[in-house]
UniProtKB/TrEMBL annotation:
InterPro entries: ACP_syn_III_C, ACP_syn_III_N, FabH, Thiolase-like. Its EC number is 2.3.1.180. This is Beta-ketoacyl-[acyl-carrier-protein] synthase III. GO terms for cellular component: cytoplasm. The gene is fabH. Residues 249-253 are annotated as: ACP-binding. NCBIfam families: fabH, PRK09352.1. Pathway: Lipid metabolism; fatty acid biosynthesis. The active site is at 114, 248, 278. It catalyses: malonyl-[ACP] + acetyl-CoA + H(+) = 3-oxobutanoyl-[ACP] + CO2 + CoA.
Length: 321
């Protein structure tokens, strides 16, 4: 029997405050029509003063562990994908371990921008397959509202805050359930089309998100389509085997482009970008949690995930839930 990383728990957290496109257009030269037409976004959740990457990650993790009936004491590792940590160190993940009272585990953060959750799943899977961990919580938690330039209409309208978590546990499930494969890519030559223009190590301040949206768009569909083909090809599967596409939620037009290349009807795509906007590393686990809890994604379904973000980084993951 093959050991696999079973997706054993799902959880998420969204801040209470919702900011609509109309609210944004009161202070920026933009409109609901423009934002919805170009991106599919209608609203986003924005953190309150006391909410942070740690507080949201911890709540998403608590919910994921509760979902799976998993005792936090059995957690071997927490991996948090985030570009917006509370502090340079301790790592977000270590703070989360403490919040969970998971005293026996280790933890660290991953910085791969919007692809961070896929990078986190791949890393957790490697720990599990090598026998170094049996239970790993992978979290994406982001507070992009604190790195946006709120006077820049080309970026401020696109992002939101939130967190999502998945618990991976070592399993010898004979039904071939679990994470089947992950595929990671990066191209540093494209680092200047989507980046944050600061960090304490260089400028002493945290900086703002900058983006050449057109260039990002141009690279997105092609690279994401190759990544999903790669994931299916690695398992000898085709698009017809896919029950659900759970894409990174940046823009409905990119999502539709990838679905079209996969010949997948939009009814088989989990979409949250309309309500959450782009929550970066949190977007896939937020979408997964929603679709598992509302009964769309069911036990045994083949789920394909993909993401692309600053770096550029991109990748895919294929799982039988
Ligand atoms: N409201 C109104 N007008 C806006 C605007 C806004 N929020 N943002 C930009 N515009 C204007 C621009 O200033 C430009 O005006 P101009 O023609 O007078 O110069 C016009 O709209 C077109 O801008 P452009 O950037 O060419 O628009 P676009 O069709 O490329 O759409 C994005 C912009 C950002 C929606 C699109 O490029 C995109 O989705 N890119 C991918 C972004 C992404 O997914 N990033 C995250 C990856 S993880």
């Amino acid at each position: 029997m093959v050991t696999r990383s079973l997706l054993s728990g799902f959880g998420s957290y969204l801040p209470e405050r919702i900011v609509t496109n109309d609210e944004l257009s009161q202070r920026l030269d933009t409109s609901d029509d423009w934002i919805r037409g170009r991106t599919g976004i209608r609203q986003r959740h924005i953190v309150g003063e006391d909410e942070t990457a740690v507080s949201m990650a911890a709540e998403a993790a608590r919910r994921a562990l509760a979902f799976g009936g998993i005792d936090p004491q059995t957690v071997d590792a927490v991996i948090v994908a985030t570009s917006t940590p509370d502090q340079v160190f301790p790592a977000t993940a270590v703070r989360v371990l403490h919040e969970l009272s998971a005293t026996g585990g280790f933890g660290f953060d991953i910085a791969a921008a919007c692809s961070g959750f896929i990078y986190g799943m791949a890393t957790a899977d490697a720990f599990i397959l090598s026998g170094k961990a049996k239970c790993v919580v992978v979290i994406g938690s982001e507070v992009y509202s604190r790195i946006l330039d709120w006077d820049d209409r080309t970026t401020a309208v696109l992002f939101g805050d939130g967190a999502g978590a998945v618990v991976l546990t070592a399993s010898d499930d004979p039904g071939n359930r679990g994470l089947l494969s992950t595929h990671l890519h990066a191209d540093g030559a494209l680092g200047d089309i989507l980046y944050v223009d600061g960090a304490v190590g260089r400028s002493g301040h945290s900086g703002h998100l900058k983006m050449n949206g057109r260039e990002v768009f141009r690279h997105a569909v092609g690279r994401l389509s190759s990544a999903v083909d790669e994931a299916l090809g690695a398992e000898g599967l085709t698009h017809a085997d896919v029950a659900w596409l759970v894409p990174h939620q940046a823009n409905i037009r990119i999502i539709e482009g990838v679905a079209r290349k996969l010949h997948l009807p939009m009814e088989q795509v989990v979409v949250t970008v309309d309500r959450h906007a782009n929550t970066s590393a949190a977007s896939i686990p937020l979408a997964l949690d929603e679709a598992v809890r509302d009964g769309r994604i069911r036990r045994g379904d083949l789920v394909l995930m993909e993401a692309l973000g600053g770096g550029l980084t991109w990748g895919s993951a294929l799982a039988r839930v």
